[in-house]
């Protein structure tokens, strides 16, 4: 038996035989060839990994972040993955939609004791703020003071647009409302008709009654000969016959259900060089179906590439949850190039050019630009201005929109790919451009997880004041702002502290806001000025404003009080009422702001503030009527749109 010891002994213990006179290597030495080989292998591996990563990114220099990934394929559906028995395409596919609709709406305007009903153009826009909008004009830079403040109390605007009228009119109509006469009459009453006369009128007029384009025959419940004279009564008067083609059946219309079979067109504008399959997959088509159609089109075009300005038109039949592509067309520079259609054997063959759609010709003018990557998105403030101006809003209307959203939206935050605004406003003409007389009637804004919806309403019970309210009739404006100097910084809060002048611990009954001397101070809410002048107790130039529900705001150490701010004057939220200074017992330019509730000074930064005013009674009823008219109008417009992706 061989043991381990015998095995070792059999191998020998002599040094190896070296040829050509070489000596055995020293174990302490380093092999240069091994080291260089290892080093070159590492470099080669790094280069190959870099090339593979660059190819995977398709030339992009940054990895995609979730916002970019979601922005690449805009969709209203959370899950567009393809499963057995599920739709191939998310959402109902119809012709390419537009994001701006210009419509003529009947409105009523009060002029004295008359009401004029006339048709006016309105714009209904749906703005995706993440799109690369280009503002046609310059807009003001972000300034928190300019968002809220104004140099003087703005006058109450009149309702230049008018109220939405419940019916359509062909031209201008004048309505005059008069009190119903309760006593006396200037008109003679006609003699009452007998029962026989009523029956005769029903019989004679019933045969000529019409409903649309179909005539109705009268139902004779009495003997018509009862009222006949020497002339015979034609019982067939008013009856008509309908002639139909031979072998044709006439049935009642089939009700439209989610399983109704319908045809639709999907318009895909091409904005950069790419393949046909890539253009289809980007808008949600499965990769297999996109490659199949691309192969058929390539066989006829000689190439599967498309260029900017080309339009791909896909015809589909949708029935319930199933979608089948039955036709595909390609347009280059507005001209039709090729069309293929599905035959009875489920194969694509050459087909005739389909009838032209407006959506094909306007695919680029009506579609917003491509959505930008997440890292390139601007701030919310810039996104609102760029989109609103490019969609026809004026600078003043956009400033109002920003001001209304400022209390609920962080304007300096970066946009998200899902941020969007729907707006409804009056315009000057069918071009959709707002003028100085245009008014913003409705806004539905979505930012992140926050949805803000409000309507314009003129309250006749409150001096015809105009404000914006949510769907429940509550004002969207804050009751009081937290900071009276928007671009200042808070240097001292509410509570015990060491007094900077007296040198002992005292209760600090307000908040200090540091800002350069002369910085404007704004009113934190609507109210009436109680005091505007010098305070001998150390507050210097002081202004007290009384608000609703027992709230009083106090502004102290001002360098000067704004013109027109005097006891008894009404001020509005955001109105400039004074300027930062250091009057009274003060060590530097700042504003000492106090909030007093029912005579007690409270912490303005922590106290729970009530919401804005709410409509009640008749005003609430009128607002709800106006809101319903706007909702009905917009819902009807949405249902009449040909497309939605």
From TrEMBL:
Protein name listed in UniProt: Murein DD-endopeptidase MepM/ murein hydrolase activator NlpD
Keywords of the record: Hydrolase, Membrane, Metal-binding, Metalloprotease, Protease, Transmembrane, Transmembrane helix, Zinc
InterPro entries associated with the record: Cell_wall_metabolism_enzyme, Dup_hybrid_motif, M23ase_b-sheet_dom
Spans traversing the lipid bilayer: 32-57
UniProt entry tagged with the keyword Metal-binding: yes
Residue segments, region Disordered: 1-22
Domain M23ase beta-sheet core: 507-603
Biased composition (Polar residues): 1-10
GO molecular function: metal ion binding; metalloendopeptidase activity
Lineage: Bacteria, Pseudomonadati, Pseudomonadota, Alphaproteobacteria, Hyphomicrobiales
